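User: Run a structure prediction on this.
Assistant: Running it now.
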Amino acid sequence: MNTATDSTGRVMTVTVPVGRTADSVDAAQLRSHVSAPALVFPRAAAQRGRGLHGQLVQQLGQMIVAGELGSDRPLVPEEIGHRFEVSRTVVRESLRVLEAKGLVSARPNVGTRIRPVQEWNLLDPDVIEWRAQGPLRGDQARELAELRQAFEPLAAHLVAERGAALPEPVRVRLGELADMLAETAAAGDAPGYARVDAEFHALLLQATDNRMLEHLSAVVYGALEITGVRAGCEAQPANARAHEELVERVLAGDGPGAAELSGALLGAEPRAIGTPRLPAQREQ
């Protein structure tokens, strides 16, 4: 089971089903081989109920990520409390949450200061959302695409190498998902295609028998849920056929071929479904 930390610092687990469950696949058997047939995603912050403390975390987090709070001077709790009309206790608790996310650091005789972006917890669902909503949205889209390109071809290679040891429910489900991609592409159903594509790629990661890659499947696809940005996810027949060929290579035990095709599928420029293309270069 995967977990995520919400704006109040609590640990939560949220299950978001994707795709459809096939009658021919025994869910209990599938769970015995992969973590779950449904993915566990961190919810977008907009879906969470927020108290005064959670609202302040969101406001300060968004301002820090957008560069609206300078790093040249400490964050003064009294000033924050006065500006947002909240108590020092609320400010103190909010800054602790932001410190846990790596955005600020508090030290004696120095105060609370904003940390460099490379020290932020960039896989935290709130930080992902704040970057996606602010001036760093181009960086967020590019980095998500590059992260997938770094480990998903390896995952495809590992799954193919399992060969006969790959559980039959996983083999069946991969084929069914490839068929569903073809169906949604033919129907021009972009949202449906994106949901099936998410389950397809997450299932490959979960089938690697590698717990770290399995964890990344929840983190990365949770980030895609938050941002709406996907690479290699075009609801077109050619893209669906490439996924079908990937399944064929995996089931044939062709590790190098599966890795090569997986990398090719992810080579497309990151795009938000239903929105203009985002810039691929770093934003200043």
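Residues 1-49, 269-284 have pLDDT under 50 and may be disordered.
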